[in-house]
Amino acid sequence: MGNFYANYTIRGATQKAVADAFSGRRAFVTPEDRGCVVVYDETSDMMNSVDEGLAAKLSADLSCTVLGVSNHDDDILIYQLFRNGRKTDEYNSSPDYFDDGGGQAGPSGGQAGVLCLAFESEAIAEVAEILNHSGALEEDHGGEDGPRYVFAVERHGELVRALGITEYAVGFGYRYVSQDELPAGLAVADLTSTQ
Fold first, then answer.
1. Which domain holds residue 59?
2. Residue 50 and residue 80 in contact, taking contact as beta carbons nearer than 8 Å
3. What is the pLDDT of residues 84-106, one digit of tens each?
4. Is 131 part of a structural domain of the chain?
5. Would residue 190 count as lying in a domain?
6. What distance lies between CA 155 and its chain's CA centroid?
7. pLDDT, tens digit (0-9, with 9 covering 90-100), for 24-60
8. Three-class DSSP labels, the chain
C-alpha cells in the first residue's frame, strides 16, 4: 500500500496567521521553511482530498498562495493552486484512474508557468516536464525521456524541489504527523496544533 495524504502549502502568511485561520479545525501547522508554511488538516487528510472552499477562503482571507495537494495510494498526485481567493491552476497525474481507463491516460492540467509564477521559480521547463511526464506508463527510467514516477510521492518531491519550496509537504498528512511521523528537520515542538 502506498502513501495517502493531503496537505496545504501556503506562501505569504506566517505560521501564527495560518494557525489562527485554522481555528476550529484539527490541524498541525509547520514553521516557515523556504518561504512557506505547511498545514496538515485532519478532515482533508481523512478524505484524502483538497477542500476547495477551505483553500479558496484561506487564500482570500490571508492574501496568499495556497497549493493543496493530495496523494492517493501513491498512484495519483492531484493539486489545486489558489491565489488571493481564486483557483488559478489544477492538476491530476492520472485523471482516468477511477474510470474504465484504469490510469492509462496521461496527466491533465498543470500550467508550469502559473505554478512557477506563484512560487517565484524560474524552473518552468523542469516543472513542465515533471507535470507532463506520464509516470509509471513510461518504460524507461531516466535517460532522454526524463524521470519515471513509479510513486506519486516521487513526483511531488521533484515538483517542490523544482519550485524551491519546503519539502515538509512531501509524504505527510495529518494522520502521519499525529503519529509522530515527521519530515526530516521538523520536531513535534515546532508544530502549532489547532482545534
1. 5-182
2. yes
3. 999 999 999 989 887 765 556 67
4. yes
5. no
6. 10
7. 999 999 999 999 999 999 999 999 999 999 999 999 9
8. CCCCEEEEEEECCCHHHHHHHCCCCCEEECCCECCEEEEEEHHHHHHCCCCHHHHHHHHHHCCCEEEEEEEECCCEEEEEEEECCEEEEEEECCCCCCCCCCCCCCCEECCHHHHHHHCCCCCHHHHHHHHHCCHHHCCCCCHHHCCCCCCHHHHHHHHHHHHCCCCCCCCCCHHHHHCCCCCCCCCHHHCEEEC
Do 70 and 8 form a contact (C-beta atoms < 8 A)? no
Examine residue 187 and state whether it is found in any structural domain, yes or no: no
Number of domains in the chain: 1
Flag whether 17 is in a domain: yes
Averaged pLDDT of the chain: 91
This prediction has a pTM of 0.91
